[in-house]
């Protein structure tokens, strides 16, 4: 499976078109740009952060996610879109909230290397992963022979 961008079409698998239209219209002032792309981008960055936390994972091109994480990213995206409107979440039985929490748990497993993701065909060159410390011993400035008579 390939890496690809998270799209508004993906979002429509978690929200109905009517819901998205209502959230979009309520969340916008006349002079404000459509926030959906911004929320999609921030969700993508969040998921990529979990992927990058494991140095054994390889990131795909900027703005892309592995196909197998798209539906979990949508689960998080649905909550982000909804809470943008005065924190109102339409989730009477808590199904969406539970799905978003399960998605975060999956992302944590990806970060720990417990859930495998595919290697992208085109790798991103940015550095990622948790840096590990590098410790070097100090070289002595004087040899034993040089200290004779001190």
Task: Provide structural commentary.
The structure is a single chain. The protein has one domain. Helices cover 42% and strands 3% of the residues. It contains 5 helices and 2 strands; from the N terminus they run βαααβαα. It has helices spanning 8-11, 17-26, 36-52, 70-83, 95-112; strands spanning 3-4, 65-66. It has a two-stranded antiparallel ribbon. α4 crosses α5. The chain is elongated. The model has no long low-confidence stretch (mean pLDDT 85).
Topology readout:
Elements: E1 3-4, H1 8-11, H2 17-26, H3 36-52, E2 65-66, H4 70-83, H5 95-112
Antiparallel strand pairs: 1-2
Order of helices and strands: EHHHEHH
Identify the quaternary structure here: single chain
**Stretches with pLDDT under 50, minimum 5 residues:** none
Shape field? elongated
Tally of alpha and pi helices:
5
Structural class, by secondary structure, is: mainly alpha
Q: How many discrete structural domains?
A: 1
Amino-to-carboxy terminus distance: 70 Å
How is the main sheet built? 2 strands, antiparallel
Number of strands: 2
Helix content: 40-55%
Which strand-content bin applies to the residues?
under 5%
Mean pLDDT: 85
Strand order of the largest sheet: 1-2
- Gyration radius from CA atoms, angstroms: 23 Å
């Amino acid at each position: 499976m390939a890496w690809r961008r998270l799209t508004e079409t993906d979002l429509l698998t978690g929200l109905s078109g009517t819901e998205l239209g209502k959230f979009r219209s309520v969340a916008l002032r006349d002079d404000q740009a459509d926030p959906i792309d911004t929320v999609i981008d921030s969700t993508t960055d969040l998921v990529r952060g979990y992927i990058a936390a494991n140095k054994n994972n390889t990131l795909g091109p900027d703005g892309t996610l592995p196909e197998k994480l798209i539906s979990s990213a949508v689960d998080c995206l649905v909550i982000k879109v909804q809470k943008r409107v005065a924190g109102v979440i339409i989730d009477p039985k808590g199904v969406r909230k539970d799905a978003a929490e399960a998605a975060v748990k999956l992302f944590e497993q990806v970060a720990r290397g417990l859930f495998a993701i595919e290697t992208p065909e085109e790798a991103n060159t940015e550095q990622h992963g948790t840096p590990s410390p590098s410790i070097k011993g100090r070289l002595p400035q004087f040899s034993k022979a040089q200290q004779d008579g001190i």
